[in-house]
Task: structure prediction
Amino acid sequence: MMVMSTQGIFERIVLMRKWIARVAFLIAIFVPFDAGAQSPASHLPEPVAKALAHAGIPVSSVGVYVHEIGAQRPVVAFGATRALNPASTMKLVTTYGALELLGPAYSWNTEMYVSAPPVQGALDGDLFIKGYGDPKLTLENFWLLLRNLRARGVRDIRGDLVLDRSYFSPGDYDPGNFDGEPTRPYNTGPDALLVNFKAVTLQFVPDPDAHRVKVIAETALPPVRIVNNLKLRDGACGDWVTRLKIETQGNADAAQVALNGAYAPDCGERTRSFSVLGHREYAGALFGQLWKELGGTLSGVVRDVTVPPGARLLLSSQSPSLSEIVRDINKFSNNVMARQLFLTLGAFGEGAPATREKSQQVVKQWLAGKGLAFPELVMKNGSGLSRAEQISARSLGRLLLSAFSSPVMPELMASLPLAAVDGTMRKRLSGADVAGHAHIKTGSLSGVRSIAGYVLDKEGRRAVVVFIVNHANAANARPAQDALLNWIYDR
Result:
């Protein structure tokens, strides 16, 4: 009897051990391990704190949030609830919202209407072009649209060129309001018929034999006069832009760009773009120039009117898909395209004409529907090129955690610059262990530096990271932010 009792106890112990092992196994599967589960780290990693101190940036001016995917609590949450200006990392809110609301395959139409079909190549009435906010109606795509028109038998337009830009509200946009640089392309305002980003692009070609610098306009527009007074001078290229003395004069109808100063042969060929005409004037001038090159004529003037109800659709072109647009916006931090996308959300959700207020409402409703309440969030134009926009590191981190479980996660992550590989991160962290393992959106304004995205660490765990700095010395924050990315990879 004594032997049987011992054997029974032994069997029970074995069964109990098996049960405990099974419970532990299930916990390991369904409850993610988090080394900081007791309380999120309320201090910065040592290398980050040292780099900030060396940069002269007080810790009271930063917000940092690191959260491993699947963990219950963040690894680092320092100043994470502070409302800060995120600069271009605000584009993550716009692009993630657009991918979910519009869908990755969404595209924009640009349509051409006529009152009557052309007869023997002649269009006796007006030609109408209606835009729906295409963010990427580039010079090449606009030329293809006109070439299609020419292929359909239209040669002579005897009426006017009528532009329908009513899909976006014209608003009251001042391109010089942000930084006093109204001719910089990034300050170009949104428009339902935005053509080629409204950019006049000049190519600088040194000609040592002739001792001069050729200036070639990408497409010469009659309303824009280029005055070339550049001198070719030997020396290192260096910061070539600061040696140019550029003066722009004019208004929405016509402008002059005077180029003075020196240009070094060592620079090779470079380009510089300017935004110097109004949207209607630019689109009309570019149409006229390209149409002439295609062998067409335009007898009338360029004006703004909505397409009349009786007009007939002659042709329509489509933009690249939203997934491609989002890639351009995030990889290269394109502010103009981000503004176009932001207004598109307003028109899509609240109806045309799109306004900033409609877009703000659509984004807030979308966030609320996902259980993402960001009370500190302020969005002005969706691009981050604003002194008023605000969000906290924690809110931006929660957005990225949500995006990781979204069906559009592959499109969003693929749109983010890859450290040491491409986009705005191409020249960062080259040679570091984290190179190629971090998809990071960057942000930069005077007094603002930010990063936000995903890091895959050396153990194969992925974490969300957000690091925002708002301080006069923010330009010195890069080593601290890079230190955080390296710390996440190595931890």
Q: What stands out?
A: Residues 49 and 60 are 12 Å apart (CA to CA). DSSP finds eleven helices and 20 strands in the chain.
